[in-house]
Amino acid sequence: MTAPAVPSRSTRPAATPATSARGWVVTVLLLVFMLINFADKAVLGLAAKPLMHDLGLTPESYGLISSGFYFLFSISAIVVGFVANRVPSKWILLVLGVVWALTQAPMLGSAGFGVLLVSRIVLGAAEGPANPLAMHAAYKWFPNEKRALPSSLLNAGSGLGVALAAPLLTAVIVAHGWRWAFFALLVIGLVWAVLWAVFGREGTVAGTASVHTAQKSEVDEPRVPYRRILLSGTWLGGFLSGFAAYWALAVLVAWVPHYLETALHYRPVTTGTLVALPWIASVVFNVCQGTLTDRLMRRGVSSRMARGVLGGIAVVLSGIAMLAFPHVGAGWLQIALLTIAFSLGGVVFAIGMTVNAEISPTRQRGAVLSISVGLVTTAGLIAPYLTGLLIQSASSPAVGYTLAFSIGGVLSLVGGVVSIVFVRPERTARRLGLRPVNPTGSTDGKVTH
User: Domains in the chain, please, with CATH?
Assistant: First the structure.
């Protein structure tokens, strides 16, 4: 008995040159959007030492403020993701950008612990949907086989944002005080919002040549219960590797600058340079991952190998480096391991987006991406506060940091191995009815005749 034909999402019309060019313009604006996103996140960590001194914060209270950023982060990501199924991405992204900018304003006055905590909670609520919505908006201009590069570029925006912001904002903090760093981000955020309002465009789904064709393709796709997507081995494997990588990211943003100053005794200006290294490396790794994955996919390598296995190996290597660097003597090797520990695993964020898009119907994609980000980023709610508790309760800050980094390293090892074993996008897409069944019965890779 022959299985019924299922419309393939790879048979859509190619985008016109004008559509492709406009798609890349939108992608560049979204790249800047993500750059600002992570500069907003990083400023608190960069200002940690003088801010803690001026406001009289303990490591535990500072850790609470850092984790406060994630109090509404996940909930907002999920809720706005469902809204994005019905409301154009352009207007949602514009509102988010304006809110980001305005949350910096309270820092210009005599802000105390309460004001700082509330402003970070509001900022987190506005930034929660940012990554999945940016990806969702970009995916409307590119078919599945061409999404790895724009995904990796948007993911690289996080690294580029902090790589640029770390030395610049540190210089502002040293010269003028930490409040002026928040003011600079307020101005930059408002400028982006104006540019997006003028030049931002809503794409046609997956880069098709017309809205009519895109809408027809959406109708042809089956609607899949969300529980089937979220309980698949592919989604669960991607979630665990992403959770581990985001745990490392949250610690990097909140605590690594403070670690470099207090445990390794680097000067503030040197810290501003060193803390940029993981972010610079993440840009390189993300671009390389996107280029390599696109090339492998074009050559017929399975999505499991090009995405699941490749991403899992990256997370495992990050875990090994994180376990190792606290035990290596001060010097270039320690900084190199620290850089790898907090950068290489981050490639799974872009990989996870493309994998989740691959196993989601187009009209449900915004919600699936947002649910995924919302749950993965719960790591950020736990990691900074737990790290602060460990530092405060340890016999010395160095001992507390070592324990905290060991927890992150073990999480990365487990998450990476799970990704390697369980992330199988082609098989999951077939089981969900989004791809035709191979004549050979194969579940991964190319069809052989």
Answer: 19-207+225-431 (1.20.1250.20)
- pTM, two decimals, is 0.72
Q: DSSP of 121-139, one letter per residue?
A: HHHHHHHTTHHHHHHHHHH
For residue 104, the model assigns a pLDDT of 86
**pLDDT tens-digit series, residues 223-234:** 888 899 999 999
pLDDT: is 293 or 441 the higher one? 293
What DSSP state is assigned to residue 96? H
Contacts of 179 (CB under 8 A, 6+ apart): 107, 108
Backbone angles phi, psi at 435, to 5 degrees: -135, 150
Residue-wise DSSP of 58-88: -HHHHHHHHHHTTTTHHHHHHHHHHHTTTS-
- Express each pLDDT in 26-79 by its tens digit: 888 898 898 888 788 778 888 888 888 888 888 888 888 888 888 888 888 888
| 141-150: average pLDDT | 72
Residues 42, 48, 49, 52, Cα dihedral to 10°: 170
Nearest of 317, 284, 441, 379 to residue 67 by alpha carbon? 379
**Burial of 259 per CB tally in 10 Å (0-12, 13-18, 19+):** buried
With contact defined as beta carbons under 8 Å apart, do 145 and 297 qualify? Answer: yes
User: What is the residue-wise DSSP string for 224-242?
Assistant: --HHHHHTSHHHHHHHHHH
Q: Rounded to an integer, what distance in angstroms lies between the CA atom of residue 349 and that of residue 376?
A: 10
